[in-house]
UniProtKB/TrEMBL annotation:
Organism this protein belongs to: Sporofaciens musculi
One Pfam family, short name: DUF5662
Protein name (record): Catalase
InterPro entries reported for this sequence: DUF5662
């Protein structure tokens, strides 16, 4: 078990998210981000499967076929689009992604940056979160509401093109002011 390393990784990630959230004015979300990671359901799995270069939930998923820690986490943290998956009011549509409130889309955006910085370290670039998103976007299908996906994608493109400071300034001045 690598409890200390996992604890440091969680703290580092949360610090980066907090810093980003504070820059755009989401103080409460910055303070409360990912607190469920300290719960036994998530923390013990993280210690057991810790690798330092990717989420321990991926290793748990590979070993047992799903991740108990992820199921716990996504059900308690509104900045994950999976939290917003529900049955459509139209029975023909089945299960779909609901539109996320903008403040949680922004937290999700900042979370992606922080995760990339945490796991990539010195290899991080502002274009990496966009590249990672675009590799997986085809698999998302109807699990992310189109307006949520559009906002996230446009912010990731802006990050890659204009950098973090300019994108955060835009979020603070335009996106969250609406």
């Amino acid at each position: 078990m690598k409890a200390w390393q996992h604890f440091r990784t969680i703290n580092h990630h949360r610090f980066l998210v907090m810093k980003g959230c504070f820059k755009v004015g989401l103080y409460r979300q910055g303070l409360l981000h990912d607190l469920s990671k300290y719960s036994p359901s998530e923390f013990l799995v993280g210690c057991r499967y810790y690798q330092g270069t990717r989420s321990p939930n991926n290793a748990e998923r590979e070993e047992i076929g799903y991740s108990r820690a992820w199921l716990h986490h996504k059900g308690r943290n509104r900045h994950h689009y999976e939290y917003w998956i529900d049955y459509s009011t139209d029975p023909k549509e089945g299960i779909i992604g609901m539109k996320m409130p903008v403040r949680y889309v922004i937290e999700m955006f900042i979370d992606r940056i922080a995760a990339a910085k945490t796991y990539r370290g010195s290899k991080y670039t502002d274009s990496y979160p966009l590249e990672y998103y675009e590799k997986g976007v085809a698999r998302l299908g109807r699990m992310v509401h189109p307006e949520t996906a559009q906002l996230l994608h446009s912010l990731l493109k802006m990050l890659a093109r204009d950098g973090e400071e300019e994108t955060f300034r835009y979020i603070r001045g335009k996106v969250l002011k609406k």
